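re: that chain from earlier
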Amino acid sequence: MAEREPPLGAGRNAGLEVPPAQRANPLWAAAWMMGALTSFALMAIAAREISKELDTFQLMFYRSIIGIVIVVAIGALLPGGMAQFKTGRFRMHAVRNAAHFVGQFCWFLSISLISLAEVFAIEFTTPIWVAMVAPIFLAERMNRYRAMAIAGGFLGVLIVLRPGVTEFGAGHVAMLIGSFAFSLSMITTKKLSATESPLCILFWMAVLQAPMGLIGSVSDFTLPGLESGLWLVIVGICGLTAHYCIAQAFRWADATLVAPMDFVRLPLIAVVGMLLYGEALDPYVFLGGAVILAGNWISIRFARQS
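^ sequence. v structure.
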């Protein structure tokens, strides 16, 4: 997910209802998605490099501080200034960010423990989890298409992990937990988006998650060196650009066209992992990722039949 900021549009809410594109232009959609994919890849590389010096709690703390600076700077340039960060739904923000912090923590942790391709493949299950829990939290009906999406998603996970055949380690467990936490974050984001602007959601995410990261860092607090500091800035910036690009892609094409483009993340990050870190290209990861994506596509394609 990859950095899991709330979407600046329909973006990552692949398991939720996505409005139809305002203008159909697949080439523009593909161009914006390439920007998103590049941002996600840079974030994964940055997280791997940062893990050599900082632990995950420290990464989360510094990332939140950078996020505060960026969001406040953007807010200051927009009409309304700091007033747009006012909220009457602090409790919902707190619930959302508790879930998001767990998901983001697990994502960063898994990047330091397993191959980048495995992380991204398992992350594709997030919309499947959304389809599973949305009937509980959003009173959305479970239909046969959502059931098929869920079944396909978990079949894909089994193909990727192959329990009993390959090692099933802490990194795999962390990303499964993280994907479920991201689904809860997406659902609460949908609830908040009815009254809160995307920038307001981003602001409270950074403000609330900074102390969470600090609490986990106090026992061994470390100031980042110059190299890690630069990677942290990349994480902060790419977290915003990735989801801005996805939101733009959904403006130019329907979800059923944009969602499959997201699968390019998997081979892209697999090649990055091979070239930079000597990670093997595992065909089962690609096959499982394709099955998971197919489940996501079914969920989106037939969403209006629920």
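The first helix runs from residue 26 to 50.
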